[in-house]
Amino acid sequence: MTESLSQIPTMYFTYEPLNPDSDSESLRLITIESSLNENDALTCKLVSTKFAERPRFRAFSYMWGDDTANKTTMLNRAEFHSRNPVAVLGDAVCINQNNIPERNKQLMIMKQIYFRAATVAVWLGTKYER
């Protein structure tokens, strides 16, 4: 039985470093786990992988800019049927934004990341009006 969110102890997330000595480029993916009950908490894992392993994933991004964390990203609990976990790259989560060398290295391979993604969705912000 899966625990509800109120039963899960609060822990603060810390990033494991990507392997800087690796011969191939690496990235983090979010794996969304399946659940048996629609009332279960959404469970995700952040896993590191290499491009050489040719991972299958979907990518989503947001408008880069002011680094002040004043917005919250929400994932709606829409019904989704899958037999296998879904791998997602969300750059705001998968890239350690506070680790400048890692962030810069990941920015250098963004073209490759989005090219290899099965699907890419980008949030450009609200409509701009002059």
From TrEMBL:
In this entry, which stretches build a coiled coil?
Answer: none
Origin, by domain of life?
Answer: Eukaryota
Q: Name one Pfam family in it.
A: HET
- Residue spans crossing the bilayer: none
List each copy of the Heterokaryon incompatibility domain by range.
91-127
Q: Which PANTHER family match?
A: ANKYRIN REPEAT DOMAIN-CONTAINING PROTEIN 39 HOMOLOG-RELATED, HETEROKARYON INCOMPATIBILITY DOMAIN-CONTAINING PROTEIN
Q: What is this protein called?
A: Heterokaryon incompatibility domain-containing protein
| Source species of the chain | Botryotinia fuckeliana (strain T4) (Noble rot fungus)
| Species classification | Eukaryota, Fungi, Dikarya, Ascomycota, Pezizomycotina
